[in-house]
Amino acid sequence: MKLHVLPAGPIQTNAYLLTEPQRGEAVLVDAPEGIWAEIEPILARTKCQLTELWLTHGHWDHTQGAAEVVRETKAKVRAHEADRALYETPQVMSAFLAGKMKLEPVFPDHWVRQGEKFKALGATFEVRHVPGHCPGNVLFYSPNLRAAFVGDALFNRSIGRTDFPGGSLEMLTASIREQIYTLPDETVVYPGHGSDTTVGDEKRHNPYVSG
User: Fold this and answer.
1) Can you give the pTM of this predicted structure?
2) How far does the chain reach from its first CA to its final CA, in angstroms?
3) Contact (Cβ atoms closer than 8 angstroms) between residue 87 and residue 106
4) 76-80 and 49-54 as β-strands: parallel, antiparallel, unpaired?
5) What fold is seen in the domain 2-205?
6) Which pLDDT belongs to residue 164?
7) Are 42 and 17 in contact (CB under 8 A)?
8) What is the DSSP string of 11-38?
9) What residues does each domain of the chain span?
């Protein structure tokens, strides 16, 4: 399995494409604007079909390209129901953005839940609910890959903003300590923006949430 890190969109939101050529399948984590143009040649080159799209949360910069990806691939979408309004009626964010961006709805096929485990690309993944930045923020953790895709809950030596509607610093701090810092220290954390880090490094050095 190979991981492709693909920052895209107006604020360089990280999308993560996991390809498994031996199975001919791929999974995309988050879908910023223009991501289809980035992943289409990779899928063609690796002869992989995108089977699923996993959305870490409903903020516009992570979902702006989702409708196009689904149209092009018929990928099944996983997301948390706490952000249902953001996915299905994104005009609530358009109003917040003064109508400057085109946002299309996306309709998840499966609402994930805390502690849910499933198989994809021959690996096991676990869902952990990490609200605080956004009510429906989740992470997708694979012990096989020693990796966690955390959305905007945690960054390299930083944390997600909590001043958006539905945000809470107290809730985010609890989410990080209870759901991220309880993962093995060697787990690589892949955030929604910026470079990757590890659970152990953030527990020791994150200035906002200590371990």
Assistant:
1) 0.96
2) 31
3) yes
4) parallel
5) Metallo-beta-lactamase; Chain A (3.60.15)
6) 87
7) yes
8) TTEEEEEEEETTTTEEEEE---TTHHHH
9) 2-205
